Request: fold
Amino acid sequence: MEETKEPADRARSEAGHTDEKAADAARRRRLAAWEGCERALVRPGMNQRLGERLAALAADAGSVHDLDEWTDLYGNGVVAELERRVASLLGFPAAAFFPTGTMAQQVALRCWAGRTGNATVALHPLAHPEVHEGGALSAVGGLRTVHPTTEPRLPTAEEVQDLADPFGTLMLELPLRDAGFVLPTWDELVAVVNAARERDAVVHFDGARLWECEPHFGRTRAEIAGLADSVYVSFYKSLDGLSGAALVGPRELVEEARVWRHRYGGQLFQQFPAALSALVGLERELPRLPSYVAHARVVAAALSEGFAESGAPWFRVHPEPPHTHQFQVWLPYPPDVLNEASVRQAEETKTALFRVWSAAPSGPPGLSFTEITVTEPGLEWTAEDVRSAVAEFMTRLTEESGRQSS
Reply:
């Protein structure tokens, strides 16, 4: 079939294949560099080799579930146990396990549209369904979206009250990841929820990262989740599970969601690896998240000090202090220069400070950002460790920037 292609088509195909090979080689180089580091702020399970990931799950699974039990079939067994555990943790009567958060959230919003009689969802334009799901809410779910605000923060009560379009559901992403993992204050969140209820709307939380919001709000996860009519939570983003999500809410809503889960192709035959890893995350990572959040503030402050001491032409740590254990760092350099400096630092100093840089989605050209996550390995870093790592990074960044411009 290759011989039948026109020369231009063949050239495009070959160029695409070359780009894929280059991207794969860059990824493998980063993974090898991170693996060889003696110091890192985070070591996510997703970056382990296959054998390491399987061995870790096999070693840990017996501490959270009886491995003499039979495997699950279509959502029973260990999957049902995970659902009961999550519903209890978040203070809801029922929960349904989903293979992906994207599916869980689309199903939840679709169910609420049918129950309220209004297919319009109010949400932020930076929310996950608007940025990362290919327009699925409208293309698949037949829903319409409106935006109470375009500011890089959650909407205020006044903005919800003043929204011209009637809406059936207000969806709030806690924290708002693409704006910098930002959260409102507790009083602001309560006011926004009340404003939606005054407009006869239901409230759904995109709580993919809800687990780490307790320190910022000063409330338990059940109190936070209890403000909403339904909540979706992820098992791999903060809990380091293999995959999967849960939708919690009233029993009638969850039962309807199970029907839609089947219709969407989410009624998987067996899911015990994901369910077991989620239980491990709830047991191991969930209690540690407050310490990660606290230390992220130390790391963020030290990063700012390090950039100032190194003479960086411009930088931003956002938000400062962080609202969770994740935040953004911005610098005025192209992503390829920043990524090369980052991987060189990991290779040469055995210290992984930054991971992957991306071009800013808007604003003037030449700005890039990266996301910082602080987990258990990061707790070992002192403020001085961070400042020293910034100095090492800036040395390599200056070299790479000069090499590219020469």
Q: What stands out?
A: The radius of gyration is 23 Å. The chain has 15 helices and 13 strands. Residues 7-35 form the longest helix (29 residues). The longest strand covers residues 202-207.
